[in-house]
């Protein structure tokens, strides 16, 4: 708790609530007025001019009340509306207002008629609420305000606070310039610009501290709060143009998110990763051991795609960094492209299309075939391979598949136990094996020679899986009738120039790694991966982690949660429990999951405990990471 006695002076509009109450009142009273929009704009403009100190506050109030045309009876509806608009982090931290009630004041240029009932819920009594009061005529119309009240005059908050003669250190928390002036006048000690609802440049520029929500204010002042670590302090870096929904989802949960369009090379990432808690990438960014070694704060990596071999998964695990991916979100998109390309190749469509683009009409049935009744060879019968199998059969193709692991055949698909059996029978061979480096040059000269003459090859898996020079020579010689290639051994980090030996070859479809690049897939990924990230950060869940023991837990209620990641060495759990026992913690649940290298134990404890236990747990030998959640 704090040493010096402090008093907390809160503004009301756009600080305790998300809105300006008079604007809400105007929305209500002008509902049926044909000039509603114009008047609302005018009111808002006057509000802003007043808040920023560009016109006198008295003038702003007078002008707005005239335009409002409100009645006393409207105030009840306004209060109901405002109750729904309490700022999110204020509502979360109701406990703070209760425990520090005696030291909390509201000084507002709004009106007691609606502020009192709202803040009463937060244990702030009317005698600590300083605000204006309305004047009504005998028909109950709001016709003005009490002009004797200092708060109705320009910079009235200064006078008001001065008159209070509060002792101790005074912290003012508000969104507007009128809050800052109390500190400028030397009556308050600190001004915190509150930006949860609105970021006002003038207030922020003059603030001692900009606080994006109450959690941050409580954290920096070491005051009791709902969550252990303000989310705005958790920095998320999203690379490779992930869908903007990911930014939305993570920002809306309160995290600080930076979006970067491109992938960035190792040396730049080594610099950029410092201080980052969550990294989001797609298939291009190499997260090497060196990058991980520089990542001083990293907790999670989200691969916004299927493949994860671009990440040093083992090294991440050993550093307690959890990796999630999106194993199913773009499956359908890849399958649809594969189907489309198989048909386009079999009909030689791209050749015909290029001819017309070059001013040539060449109508022919030469080398143009239906896919119905043809043999499709699927290599890699995983999520993509299997779905493709079903759709290809629906088109009347005969499906053969080959996989290193035992896979159940769907529909009438026929399993080939040897690769060469599949290669020798297929009219089209399509690759859907995973991105394991052992699959390098999986299709080379030997395999191509085992294929039917004039067969087609589709690669939507990884570029290194096909030996490109061997493919080029097979296409040039006519051994293969065509190919569709979406992935390349070396792909550029951003859009721009690109060269491949496959350029200019007949009946070869070239696409820039867009198998998973559809709106549907990217939107789904931008929902799926952030949810996994938030679940881990907020609750410690590791379900579906690619490189880590999986634990699924309910969100802890009224408990503190210790997350302890450690090397899986003999006796470590005994040591952890020894510490917990020494500090006499009341444990309400403990969950452990291990795999050969690391262990992950979660302990839920009652809220009252000796906080020294946290340091003691961090110091347990072989601890990799320790975090507390509440
Ligand atoms: N072009 C693009 O934009 C996209 C490409 N991909 C690529 O597609 C790959 C496959 O994706 P999913 O089907 O979701 O993966 P998956 O893991 O469900 O399936 C891969 C299958 O390949 C098999 N396999 C691996 N190596 C093999 C080998 N040498 N021989 C035979 N079978 C082998 C595995 O046993 C597994 O059944 C991803 O790993 C990724 O590299 C995925 C999404 C988009
Ligand atoms: O999901 C995958 O593995 C892909 O290859 C798609 O990668 P991308 O998100 O397009 O970089």
Can you walk through the features of this model?
The chain is an alpha/beta fold and about 625 residues long. The protein has four domains: about 5-220, 3-Layer(aba) Sandwich (Rossmann fold), CATH 3.40.50.1000; about 230-330 and about 520-550, Rossmann fold, CATH 3.40.50; about 330-515, Rossmann fold (3-Layer(aba) Sandwich); about 555-630, ACT domain (Alpha-Beta Plaits, 2-Layer Sandwich), CATH 3.30.70.260. Helices cover about 35% and strands about 20% of the residues. It contains 25 helices and 24 strands. The strands form five sheets. A seven-stranded parallel β-sheet has the order 16-15-14-17-18-19-20, sandwiched between helices. β6 (about 170-175), α10 (about 175-185) and β7 form a beta-alpha-beta unit. α9 (about 155-165) packs across α10 (about 175-185). The longest helix has 21 residues, at about 520-540. The model has no long low-confidence stretch (mean pLDDT about 95). Bound molecules: 1,4-dihydronicotinamide adenine dinucleotide and 2-oxo-3-(phosphonooxy)propanoic acid. 2-oxo-3-(phosphonooxy)propanoic acid binds next to loops. 2-oxo-3-(phosphonooxy)propanoic acid binds near residues 284, 330, 513 and 517.
């Amino acid at each position: 708790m704090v040493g010096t006695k402090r008093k907390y002076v809160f503004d009301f509009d756009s600080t305790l609530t998300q809105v300006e109450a008079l604007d809400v009142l105007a929305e209500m009273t002008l509902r049926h007025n044909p000039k509603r929009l114009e008047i609302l704009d005018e009111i808002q403009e006057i509000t802003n001019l007043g808040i920023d100190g560009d016109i006198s506050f008295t003038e702003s109030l007078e002008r707005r009340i005239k335009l409002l045309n409100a009645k006393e009876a409207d105030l009840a509806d306004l209060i109901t509306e405002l109750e729904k608009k309490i700022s999110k982090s204020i509502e979360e931290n109701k406990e703070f207002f209760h425990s520090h009630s005696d030291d909390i004041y509201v000084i507002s240029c709004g009106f007691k008629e609606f502020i009192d009932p709202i803040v009463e819920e937060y244990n702030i009594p009317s005698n600590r609420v300083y605000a204006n009061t309305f004047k009504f005529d005998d028909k109950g119309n709001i016709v003005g305000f009490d002009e004797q009240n200092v708060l109705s005059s320009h910079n009235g908050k200064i006078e008001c606070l001065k008159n209070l003669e509060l002792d101790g250190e005074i912290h003012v928390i508000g969104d507007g310039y009128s809050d800052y002036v109390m500190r400028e006048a030397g009556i308050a000690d600190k001004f915190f610009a509150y930006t949860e609802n609105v970021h006002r440049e003038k207030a922020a520029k003059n603030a001692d501290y900009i606080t994006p929500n109450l959690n941050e204010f409580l954290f920096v002042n070491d005051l009791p709060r709902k969550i252990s670590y303000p989310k705005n302090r958790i920095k998320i870096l999203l690379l490779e143009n992930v869908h903007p929904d990911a930014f939305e989802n993570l920002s809306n949960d309160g995290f600080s998110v930076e979006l970067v369009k491109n992938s960035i090379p190792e040396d730049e990432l080594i610099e950029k990763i410092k201080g980052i808690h969550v990294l989001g990438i797609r298939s291009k960014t190499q997260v090497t051991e060196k990058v991980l070694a520089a990542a001083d704060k990293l907790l999670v990596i989200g691969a916004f795609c299927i493949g994860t071999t671009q990440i040093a998964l083992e090294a991440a695990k050993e550093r307690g960094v959890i990796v999630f991916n999106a194993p199913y979100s773009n499956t359908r998109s890849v399958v649809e492209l594969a189907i489309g390309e198989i048909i386009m190749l079999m009909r030689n469509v791209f050749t015909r299309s290029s001819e017309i683009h070059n001013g040539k009409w060449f109508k022919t049935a030469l080398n143009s075939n239906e896919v119905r009744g043809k043999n499709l060879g699927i290599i890699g019968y995983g999520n993509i391979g299997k779905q493709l199998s079903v759709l290809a059969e629906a088109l009347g193709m005969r499906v053969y598949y080959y996989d290193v692991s035992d896979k159940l055949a769907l529909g009438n698909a026929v399993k080939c136990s040897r690769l060469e059996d599949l290669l020798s029978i297929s009219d089209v061979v399509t690759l859907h094996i995973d991105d394991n480096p052992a699959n390098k040059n999986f299709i080379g000269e030997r395999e191509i020679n085992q294929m039917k003459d004039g067969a087609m090859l589709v690669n939507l898996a990884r570029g290194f899986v096909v030996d490109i020079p061997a493919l080029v020579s097979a296409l040039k010689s006519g051994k293969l009738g065509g190919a569709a290639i979406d992935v390349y051994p070396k792909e550029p980090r951003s859009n721009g120039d690109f060269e491949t030996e496959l350029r200019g070859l007949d009946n070869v479809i070239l696409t820039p790694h867009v198998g998973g690049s559809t709106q549907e897939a990217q939107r789904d990924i931008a929902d799926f991966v952030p949810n996994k990230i938030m679940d881990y950060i907020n609750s410690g869940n590791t379900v579906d982690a690619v490189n880590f023991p999986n634990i699924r837990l309910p969100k802890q209620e009224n408990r503190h949660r210790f997350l302890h990641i450690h090397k899986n060495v003999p006796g470590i759990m005994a040591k952890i429990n020894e510490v917990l026992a020494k500090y006499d913690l009341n444990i309400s649940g403990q969950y452990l999951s291990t795999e050969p290298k690391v262990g992950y134990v979660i302990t839920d404890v009652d809220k009252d405990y000796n906080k020294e236990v946290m340091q003691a747990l961090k110091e347990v030998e072989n601890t990799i990471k320790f975090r507390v959640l509440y």
